[in-house]
From TrEMBL, chain A:
Keywords: Chaperone, Membrane, Mitochondrion, Mitochondrion inner membrane, Transit peptide. Interacts with ATP5F1B; involved in the assembly of the F1 component of the mitochondrial ATP synthase (ATPase). Interacts with FMC1. This is ATP synthase mitochondrial F1 complex assembly factor 2. The keyword Chaperone applies. Its main location: mitochondrion. It is found in: Mitochondrion inner membrane. SUPFAM superfamilies: ATP12-like. Plays a role in the assembly of the F1 component of the mitochondrial ATP synthase (ATPase). One of its GO terms (cellular component) is mitochondrial inner membrane. Pfam families: ATP12. Belongs to the ATP12 family. Gene3D superfamilies: ATP12 ATPase, ATP12-like. The lineage of its organism: Eukaryota, Metazoa, Chordata, Craniata, Vertebrata. Signal peptide: none annotated. It comes from Hucho hucho (huchen).
TrEMBL record, chain B:
PANTHER family: PROTEIN FMC1 HOMOLOG. This is Protein FMC1 homolog. It comes from Hucho hucho (huchen). Pfam families: Complex1_LYR_2. Plays a role in the assembly/stability of the mitochondrial membrane ATP synthase (F(1)F(0) ATP synthase or Complex V).
Length: 293, 110
């Protein structure tokens, strides 16, 4: 299924290559796809035989970063750097992904690891500003803002489901984001763009990587913000993003090998992105209160 | 619009997923201990509306979604995804032919 393969190799889903320290002695007679030896980061290996037994995490000294150990060997990013996670929660999520694999390591199912690799390596050398600009570009053709004029049941569905989210974001950020049935899409005023730009600028590089990923998956800035601000759940965000598709499924029927596969993959990726942003931008403190009676 | 499940359901759901992944010794896994720990820590709060608790709830809901949807996606992938092509030599062998050999190497090979 070429479509699936193409989606795997999207820029942000920066495909993994195995850690550099590992032995390459296993006979690759499995029906593995082609190995491209030319590109530095971009070897098209989608699966590998599982070469480790235990996964554990260790707390590094410098800067409190966490590392992942596969059977005593440290995990490295495709770019060759040591894999470090800024906090324990993220490290455990990544370790769990590696732990989930049985017999073959399926890199395309390890979304948290992929996101961490992208944030660590930054293979396309993007700056924060470039990422913010790219993210905001999606606003001009935001899914939520693009309405149809017919059939009337779809129009009604769009109004019922999408309008509340639009109202929420307009209230929350004090901006104007209209919806339109025009082919060119809504007119987003400059003030709105500035507000969003400023808001996005407050996120650190890692969170921004995750946030841009979520926007790209959902094809909507409004939905991504609603998800990251914990206004809606992942399942709701995915449903709203695929609203028309769900409408058509309701009308014409569901095709498991296309619709369901897409749905679960989108959910997995969006959930990973949301979690990644949450872990990258949180700080937790425990305040103890004395018991008073 | 946020209709989150109760913490108990989320906790059970996540632990069930971990059990599905790991098998019998799931209680020794990293994720199990960490998840239980987090749920316990976030339980006690003096506030009536605790922002951190809401955030933790949303995060655990997202994690549950991640685990379930990865599992379901992989299940469908195993059923429906193409298995890839065979090697040309193998394919020729199936119909009883062999690939031609050119002792001097093909023109574009080094």
């Amino acid at each position: 299924m070429l479509r699936n393969l193409v989606r795997l190799h999207s820029r942000v889903g920066h495909a993994l290559s195995p850690p550099i320290v590992c032995p390459r002695s296993q006979a690759l007679k499995l029906p593995l796809p082609l190995l491209s030896v030319n590109s530095k980061y971009y070897s098209i290996i989608t699966e590998r035989k599982k070469f480790y037994e235990d996964v554990s995490i260790s707390h590094g000294e410098a800067g409190g970063m966490f590392e992942i150990n596969l059977d005593q060997r440290k995990l490295k990013t495709p770019g060759g750097k040591l894999f470090t996670a800024p906090n324990k929660a993220l490290a455990i999520a990544v370790a769990n992904e590696w732990d989930t694999q049985k017999d073959t390591v399926k890199f395309y199912s390890m979304h948290m690891t992929t996101l961490c690799n992208t944030a660590l390596d930054n293979p396309t050398f993007r700056s924060k500003d470039q990422m913010i600009t790219a993210a905001l570009k999606y606003l001009e053709t935001d899914t939520i803002c693009y309405r149809v004029e017919e059939p009337p049941s779809l129009v009604e569905l769009q109004n019922n489901e999408w309008d509340p989210v639009l109202n929420w974001i307009e209230d929350r950020y004090n901006v104007v984001v209209g919806s339109s049935t025009n082919i060119l899409g809504p007119e987003i005023p400059q003030a709105t763009m500035d507000t969003f730009r400023q808001h996005l600028g407050s996120y650190n590089f890692w969170s921004l990587t995750g946030l841009e990923y979520v926007i790209t998956q959902l094809k909507s800035v409004v939905l991504a913000f609603a998800l990251i601000d914990k206004h809606i759940t992942v399942e709701q965000a995915v449903l709203l993003s695929r609203l028309e598709e769900e409408f058509q499924i309701g009308h014409w029927g569901n095709v498991e090998w296309a619709h369901d596969v897409d749905l679960y993959e989108l959910r997995a990726r969006t959930a990973a992105g949301a979690l990644f942003v949450h872990f990258s931008s949180e700080s937790s403190t425990v305040k103890r209160k004395l018991m008073q009676d | 619009m946020a209709s989150l499940s109760s913490p108990l359901r989320l906790c059970r759901g996540i632990l069930r997923e971990i059990r599905a992944i790991k098998g019998p010794e799931y209680k020794q896994s990293l994720a199990y201990n960490y998840v239980l720990d987090q749920f316990r820590k976030n339980q006690i709060t003096g506030e009536r509306y605790c922002r951190a608790q809401e955030e933790a709830l949303h995060a655990s809901h997202s994690y549950l979604c991640l685990l379930t949807s990865t599992r379901q996606h992989m299940a469908l992938y195993d059923i429906y995804h193409g298995k890839g092509q065979r090697d040309t030599e193998e394919m020729a062998g199936i119909v009883g032919l062999r690939l031609p050999t050119q002792p001097g190497g093909k023109g574009w090979e080094k």
